[in-house]
Amino acid sequence: MAENFRVGLRRHVLRHRRAHYPITPARVSRASKQDRKIVEESHIVAQEIADIGVRVSAVSTVEAAANALRELILDGRLLPGARLREHEYAERLGIARHSFRAATQILIGEGLLKREPHRGVEVPVLSAGDVADIFRLRTALEIEAVRLVGEAGIVPAAAQLAVDEMSSLAEDAPRRAIVWPDQRFHQAIIEATGSVRMQRAYFGLQSEITLCLAQLEPACDKPGQVAAEHEELLAPIISGDTDLAEKLFSHHLDQAVISLVSLHSARSEEGATEA
Fold first, then answer.
1. Which residues of 146-172 are buried (b: 16+ CB within 10 A; e: fewer)?
2. Which domain range does residue 95 map to?
3. Is pTM, for the whole model, over 0.90?
4. Which domain-ending residue is among 66, 88, 122?
5. Which of 55, 175, 187, 227 could form an S-S bond across to 167 if both were Cys, CB 3.0 to 4.6 Å?
6. For residue range 177-227, what is the model confidence (pLDDT) as tens digits?
């Protein structure tokens, strides 16, 4: 299982590099010893490989590795407190160690990894205070976005599309299928402000929001219920009632953080009892 995971993950990155960075003699001559090994292996990658559920975007090798690690963390396949040993994970990803360090630095900046003295890089274990702090900033950004969008009379089409997507889901849809359109709804409100800086701040926070959900795995309502709740959030924006929109968004986010902090406390008590 571990070997299949390692080979599959490595081949995803190899496929990307071969597709977007064509191999030339000059590149091979400049490559490090490990990179030359990757080049050689890329010629024998099978067309049919096991799907390990990680999708690597068409970006640089460092970003591709960061994307793969990000997805493993947000999917819960790298657990809180898990250590990412440089040699081991560089080998799994099929990249040089300096590329792995650069990839982890991207995720450290997003709050998805942290570097500890004498321990290296690991997945952070969020505290109840962390959860509250993340949602404090989220609430500030979203309420201001709702105000700006409402005053400008903008109705974000992407927000309605996200609601429609939630409405179309089967009642037994997996949690992730509900979470992604939920997040796209809120992101659409931020993007509709047209503020590049607000979007940048929210994007930097969004990974940590997802990390909260991945680590705590709160129970999701049925898709129809989630869709109805977000339809209610969007209605006053459509009608131009900015004050009501702000109140509904504030209540929505307050309830989310109360639920997550309570869940965190319950999990902590269970862990203490088991210990």
1. bbbbbeeeeebeebbebbebbeebeee
2. 2-122
3. no
4. 122
5. 227
6. 888 899 999 999 999 999 999 999 999 898 888 888 877 777 667 889 999
